[in-house]
Design a protein that fits this description.
It is found in: Cytoplasm. Helix content is about 45%, strand content about 10%. The chain is α/β, with parallel strands linked by helices. An 8-stranded parallel β-barrel has the order 2-3-4-5-6-7-8-9, surrounded by 5 helices. Bound molecules: phosphoenolpyruvate and magnesium ion.
Length: about 325
Amino acid sequence: VRSTNRQAAGEATATRDGRHIEVAANIATNGDARDAVDHGADAVGLLRTELLFMHRQAAPGIAEHRAAYQEIVDTLQGRSAIIRTLDVGADKSVGYLALPPEQNPALGLRGIRLAQVRPDLLDDQLRGLLAVQPFGRVRIMLPMVTDVPELLRIRARIDELAEAIGRTARIEVGVMIEVPAAALLADQLARHADFLSIGTNDLTQYTLAMDRGHPALAAQADSLHPAVLRLVDATVRGAAQHGKWVGVCGAMAADPDAVPVLVGLGVSELSVAPLAVPDVKARVRGLDYTQCRRVAAELLSLASATEVRAASRVAWPHRG
Ligand code: PEP
Ligand code: MG
């Protein structure tokens, strides 16, 4: 089965009744980009850039950013890449940032909020990113956005920096939906964003108020919780009002129980670890979109993740 999956992996993916789903890869390095290509990813749905900032004495400069992203874009041979701006905060040990200690780092200056105190870090990253060739292969994605003014501030800064280097083509800017507020305001955000990508790892953590790394809560902190599903549903509905697409780039996107549910809720891009691409594509190809829509709508009224998982396995049986 695996080698068959692997052969079909490079081809576009649709359900049996023709709903197209983009299956993209989450990457952090150029080696990951090679794996993504080798495993048939359609695109990169999330390039995590934290690694570039870690294990060093000072933040990377513009040229370094540009070189790192250019190498990856070259490796992708025409596939598009969604580059996420820096998503460290006081919880990750980037010593040279010298951020004041926080009592609740998960609720602190993380993600795009870091730009409030260190706008220089974001500016250099954006300047490097905007210089990558060819234009049009790269999109920007902002982590931990909470509301529209935050998005508009960064969008305006991106446009300023682009103009300063003579870049005329408008770059697409998407928003990660990882804060419940953003899911609830998805209709507003989608008016101004080019796409939305749900970070279900954080969205689950913040919706259920359960630390995503807490060993004793690991089983309960399940993205298939109906509260999380309702936020996914709200996000897709909000985006649809403005004709924008919605992806999922959290671990949920590769969960075989979750894939049919996400497809049924109207998500049209799944971004997963490079090695998971073939299996996710195979899973999507076995689905019927009409059935996914009907069942997913029913699952929204269940009472727990356990019930959702059980119902998913009945509707869409799988091994493993
Ligand atoms: C997420 O939160 O689901 C996500 C994709 O971002 P990260 O795991 O890097 O926080
Ligand atoms: Mg996240």
